[in-house]
Amino acid sequence: MNAIHTNPERLERFLTEIAAFGATANGGVTRLALSDEDRDARDRLREWFEEAGCETRIDRMGNMFFIRPGRNRALAPVMTGSHCDSQPQGGRFDGILGIIGGLEAVCALNDAGVTLERDLIVVNWTNEEGSRFTPGTTGSGVFAGKLDREAMYGLTDRDGLTFGAELERIGYKGGDDFDPRPLHANFEYHIEQGPVLERRGKTIGVPKGIVCLRWYDVEIQGVPNHAGPTPMDERQDAIYAFSRMAGRVFDIGLASDGVVATVGEVHPSPNSRNVIAGHVHFTIDIRGWDETETDRVCEEIEAAIRANAEATGCTVEIRQTWAVERAPFHPELVSLIHEVAGELDLPALDMVSGASHDTVYINQFAPSAMIFVPSIGGRSHAEVEETSWADCAAGADVLLNCILKTANDPESVTYAAPE
């Protein structure tokens, strides 16, 4: 079957209109999971997909499944999609591009009068970002059976609001579960969120998988005291201890073999200019493709944190709050993305995803792969996040034609598991 194309103007309109939900003054988006802005964007997505002829199913985690019926509904479906939630003051392409790319694929198939052999499902996974409720990739993790649903309902945000109550409040707690497994193939279309594609002059990124991830929460306990009368050599300053620890986290990551280590959140207490801090809470995000090297970095960082706590007269508690194995993608689907990009005369590049995505869980039970397009300046999780409309359309074309090929596979075709 010859390649078909998406409608770039319609894709741009969809992306522009959905960015209004949670829009910030500087061109970004704040659309935290289960917020009013998330609810309103979900409502609009449902409206668009149903106008395009899709059925809607919502499970008990608020995951939204938009189903375009195929000719033979007994066959395993093809799935695509991503997430609607954003970081605080985040970008307008992260996550949502994968859902809108799926919507545009549905519309382009309708335009072409194509009925696929298999059902096509476009999904909006709940709370991928983990910025309001931690851990992230919550909806896909529960769907995959890797996270406990009741435990996730009990997650709280900084205001003490629970995931379960907020899911009910916005009206997206489904009454039952939807399970379309087995899946024939799963694709996630996403911005790269890094500088590699732009620097290499490539339009399509074809990751071989997603790096492993480790999250830590660290509590430093010192002694709060007056900033004036307390001699420097008699202080148990939690901020000083933190500064030493943060420097070691960076240095250990810098010296590693391909592992990145990031201090993200920092919360000192009492956070007053003339008080020596008695407590600091901070987080660490550690990622790498090589799990052995990543875990070695984790051990070195944990040891450095304890050593610096002792050296500064403080105590410390280190908790690993999330650990996800790396996700190697299915080689036949990775090859298919290369093949489709070649047919569309789009330069493609093999790479690894340094960011985590919902596919890290879906890949554990379904043949999966991802399609990347460039992030201008390598910036993401920020209001300046940008991808050109031409690249958005190019990636959507690759997604559409990967769907077209896999969703028309006969029943006899299956995809081999990754090595």
Automatic annotation (TrEMBL):
UniProt-annotated binding residues for Zn(2+) 2: 94, 129, 381
Positions annotated to bind Zn(2+) 1: 83, 94, 190
EC number assigned by the record: 3.5.-.-
Keyword annotations: Hydrolase, Metal-binding, Zinc
Root EC class: hydrolase
Signal peptide extent: none
Entry's family note: Belongs to the peptidase M20 family.
Protein name as it appears in the record: Hydantoinase/carbamoylase family amidase
